[in-house]
Amino acid sequence: MRSNILLASAAALILASAGGAYAVAQDNAAATAAAKDAKASAGVAQKSAKVAEKKAKVATKKAAVADKQAGKAEKAAMTAAQKEGLVKDRIDFMKAQAADNKAINDYAKGMATKEQATTAINDLITRSTKIAAMFPAGTSSKDLPGKSNAKPEIWSDFDRFAGIAKVLHDTAMKEAELIKTGSPEDVGKAQADLGKNGCGGCHGPFREKLPG
Ligand code: HEC
């Protein structure tokens, strides 16, 4: 009888510990499932963060495009007064180029220093990159008679027009080197070439005869 009780209690113990193991196993399973869930939702969160980032980028791009269009519209909507102001600035800009030219010619004739010639050629190089942008449509001699001397042909052949500004740039770059290493006489020859092909190359086809 006693051994029966012992047996029974041993069986109960085994059952109890089996139950414990089962509970532990279940806990583990639950933990694993929870971890999986967490991983999955982290993944979803990451994905939606990426989508949000992409959307933000698209929005930024769209805003930039809108800005550009607004800028274009603004240019098109330049008032007559703004156009006249722009032409005045452009003429002053060209006159500054003529002053640079004179400084370099003076150097070639021994009437200016090398330093003055260097400053002038560097200014010409910088200016040559800005010429094309100073000619927005709507500022020709037809649009602003008596104010602008820019021939309408500029806008029917803008690539050629801009190309001559590039010729001026490249010629001026070479001349800058010559000012460094050559004689004033060499510079004088280069200067004739720059005037003929850089400045004159554009004024012939694209500038009206200046009055007076
Ligand atoms: C890409 C073309 C182009 C190049 C290159 C160019 N010009 Fe001009 N220039 C023009 C045009 C067009 C005008 C007329 C602008 C206007 O009236 O709105 C002009 C006008 C001028 C004027 C007249 C300003 C006035 O009193 O009305 C001078 C001076 C001048 N340019 C000097 C130069 C010199 C010097 C160079 C070279 C170092 C040069 N330009 C290079 C296109 C060019």
Give an overview of the whole structure.
It contains six helices and no strands. The chain has a domain at 79-206: Four Helix Bundle (Hemerythrin (Met), subunit A) (Up-down Bundle). With 212 residues, it is mainly alpha-helical. The chain has helices spanning 2-76, 80-108, 114-128, 153-156, 158-181, 184-206. The structure holds heme C. Residues 87, 90-91, 94-95, 97-98, 101, 124, 131, 148-150, 161, 164-165, 168, 198-199, 202-203, 206-207, 210 line the site of heme C.
Low-confidence stretches: 10-15
CATH fold topology of the domain at 79-206:
Four Helix Bundle (Hemerythrin (Met), subunit A)
Which geometry do the CA atoms define? elongated
SSE succession: HHHHHH
CATH architecture label of the domain at 79-206: Up-down Bundle
Give the key terms.
212 residues, mainly alpha, Four Helix Bundle (Hemerythrin (Met), subunit A), 6 helices, 0% strand, elongated, binds heme C
